[in-house]
């Protein structure tokens, strides 16, 4: 199933297959780095893009993934309150080192190390959603219930 996929997208496809739920990574000839670009390439709404944003905890320096609707701006204070630790921005090197992926292609699973995951409650009102799949040109389709299942993430209000 990973034939023809880039190495990073193939890693995501393998992680998806290991989750036990059938998903298919799709790579595009156009960028899907931003929620707007991804929605245009897929033909869905920007809200249906489940963007994975990586933060760095202020105390322990560990990575935290927030999977949010493409139309939402994440309120770091809400996530920090749920986490019980302050959050800071993660730079490109931190994201790559801790997840194994570049910004704009970070999937919600299959990271280089275990990460705590929070899922935007606004995604619950949507049917199918689309998440990044390892590169700024790769995505896969799933439901929010599947997202919660494969990530073990906590659903909270993030916006």
Describe the structure.
This protein is α/β, with parallel strands linked by helices. It has one domain: YbaK protein (Alpha-Beta Complex). 28% of the residues lie in helices and 25% in strands. Strands 1, 2, 3, 4, 5, 6, 7 and 8 form an eight-stranded mixed beta sheet that branches. The longest helix is centred in the first third of the chain and has 12 residues. The chain is globular and about 40 Å long.
List the helices and strands and how they pair.
Layout: H1 7-18, E1 26-27, H2 35-42, E2 49-57, E3 63-69, H3 76-83, E4 87-89, H4 92-99, E5 116-120, E6 128-132, E7 138-143, H5 144-151, E8 154-156
Parallel strand pairs: 2-6, 3-5, 5-8
Antiparallel strand pairs: 1-7, 2-3, 2-4, 6-7
Order of helices and strands: HEHEEHEHEEEHE
Proportion of strand residues: 25-35%
Major sheet description: 8 strands, mixed
CATH T-level topology? YbaK protein
CATH homologous superfamily designation: YbaK/aminoacyl-tRNA synthetase-associated domain
CATH architecture: Alpha-Beta Complex
Helix count equals 5
Report the C-alpha radius of gyration, rounded: 14 Å
Average pLDDT: 94
Structural class: alpha/beta
Q: Compute the number of structural domains.
A: 1
CATH class descriptor: Alpha Beta
Compute the number of strand runs.
Answer: 8
- The stretches of 5 or more residues where confidence is low (pLDDT under 50) are none
In one word, what is the shape? globular
First-residue to last-residue Cα separation: 36 Å
In percent, how helical is the residue content?
25-40%
């Amino acid at each position: 199933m990973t034939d023809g996929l880039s190495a990073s997208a193939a890693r995501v496809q393998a992680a998806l297959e290991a989750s036990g739920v059938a998903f298919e990574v799709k790579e595009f000839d156009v960028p899907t780095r931003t929620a707007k670009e991804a929605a245009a390439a897929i033909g869905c709404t920007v809200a249906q893009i489940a963007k994975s944003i990586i933060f760095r905890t202020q105390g322990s320096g560990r990575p935290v993934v927030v999977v949010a609707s493409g139309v939402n701006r994440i309120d770091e204070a809400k996530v920090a309150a749920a986490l019980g630790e302050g959050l800071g921005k993660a730079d490109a090197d931190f994201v790559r080192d801790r997840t194994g992926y570049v910004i704009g292609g970070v999937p919600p699973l299959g990271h280089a190390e275990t990460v705590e995951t929070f899922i935007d409650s606004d995604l619950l009102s949507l049917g199918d959603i689309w998440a990044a799949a390892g590169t700024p040109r790769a995505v896969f389709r799933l439901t929010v219930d599947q997202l919660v299942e494969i990530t073990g993430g906590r659903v909270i209000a993030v916006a």
